Structure formats: structure tokens, C-alpha cells
Amino acid sequence: MKFVDLHIHTTYSDGVLSPEEVVETAVRAGLSAIAITDHDITDGIERAVMVGSKYGLEIIPGIELSCVHKGKEIHMLGFYINWENSWFQGKLKVFQQARVRRAHQIINRLKKLGIELDEEALFSQAGEGAIGRTHFARALLSSGAVENMQAAFDKFLVKGKPAFVEKFRITPEEGISMIQRAGGIPVIAHPVYGGGQKSFLKRMKSKGLSGIEVYHPSHTASQSRRFLETASELNLLVTGGSDFHGGPTETAPIGSIEVDYAAVEALKKEKLGRERKNRRIME
Description:
CATH superfamily of the domain at 3-85 and 186-282: Metal-dependent hydrolases
Structural class: alpha/beta
Number of strands: 8
Helix content: 40-55%
CATH topology of the domain at 3-85 and 186-282: TIM Barrel
């Protein structure tokens, strides 16, 4: 059997491994395909594709968009996106600029608490990628302000805590539309955290949702079974992945969530079907 991991982050968002290191780790894990799904940025895809071709590892270009519905955060994965699409990149630029503004707001809030972070080191850690709370958690740990990464979130960075700042989000409908316009397949991520209600999924399917991330490290076996039943009932695709970020708190290594290659074949079939439909419309 061939296995895949359809949810992986790199240093271009809040992962600790470069695209090259992610590919090499996936190869060692014996995977046949992986999806690069950084938060609100696609800059790591090209590097992963180049190295993946060297090893014979199939790289699926992806994205993870932050959405909100009735105050609840919901993430939307997009697979087989045309990541070089200029319109799509323009939309992502809005996300990235908002992340920088948010980062400065968090820095100022921490300063008021008497915590001075090395701003140059903080932004250097994010590199060319999208800065987020995970980068702050690492910086707080390095500064000695907290004893571990989780404490950084619990004390400062989650909603209701003194350094928390809401991030820029779009609606799930907007996320679905963005992914579709970039030629991608929209799939709701880790529905246990939000968006897993059948009524919501049914409504999102009417807006173009194609699948559910059934298999995720945060899902119990019973939750995965429930999401699998919902996917079957609503005729939605099934995906899964490790949601790998890396670092000392990582509990799900690349390839640790067993997902059959059939999930990739189903995504390809969906992509082909949409392309054919679009061609017929244009004729």
C-alpha cells in the first residue's frame, strides 16, 4: 500500500523544517505523496516540488486559510491550487500584511507587560514566511519568560490573555471561493476544532466544499468514524494528515497519520472533473 500525508507546514509559516527537510523526512517515512499546506502562504511549494522530483516524492500544492464563522475559527485546506495565480497571490498578500500588523500589536502588548522580545530575531525566525503566534511562543521560551511553548499560549497568546490579538480572517464561504478560483479543491481542516457539524458541512457543500479532513492527530477514533460517516452521507472527499509543525511539542511526526493514496486519487479525480466542467462552460 502507498501512504500520504496531506497536511504539513514548513518554515514558510509556523513549521520548523524547511521545504527540503520536510521532503527528506517524508521520503524517510516511506510516503508516496505529501501536501504542503502552510498558513496563508504558498512560497514553500516550489522548493518542495524541486526536491520532491529528485526523490520521486509527489508534492501536492496546498494552502491552509484561516476563516471565522459566528466567532468560531475554522480552517480551510486547499489542494491542487494554481499557486502562481496572480489574483490568488494578491489575496494572500492581504493575509500576510495583516499578520505583520498583528505581530507589531502583540509586541507592543508584551512590552506593556514588561516583556521585551528581540524583534529582529523574531522576524528573522519567520524568515520570508508568515509570522504567527507560534513564532512568539518560541521567542517567549527563548527569552525565559515561559517554561515551555504551551505556557506561552496559556499565559499570553490565547483569547482572553493579555497579548492576544485577533488575526485577519475571512468567512468559510470566502475561503472556499478563493481556493476554487485558484483551481483548488476546498476541504475543511480538523473539523473537531470547528465546522464539524453536519448542518454546517451540508451548507458549505452547497457553497462548493469538496471534502473533510477525517484523519487528524486531534481526532479520536470515534470522532474520525463520525466524520467518515458524515463524508459518506454528504458525498464529500476524505483526507487526512499529521498537521506537522515540528519542534519540542510535536506529537504527530510526518506520516504518523495513516492515509491511503486513494485520498490523492480522489482529489485528482475531483480536480479533473472540475476542469472538464469549466471547459464545457467556456465552450
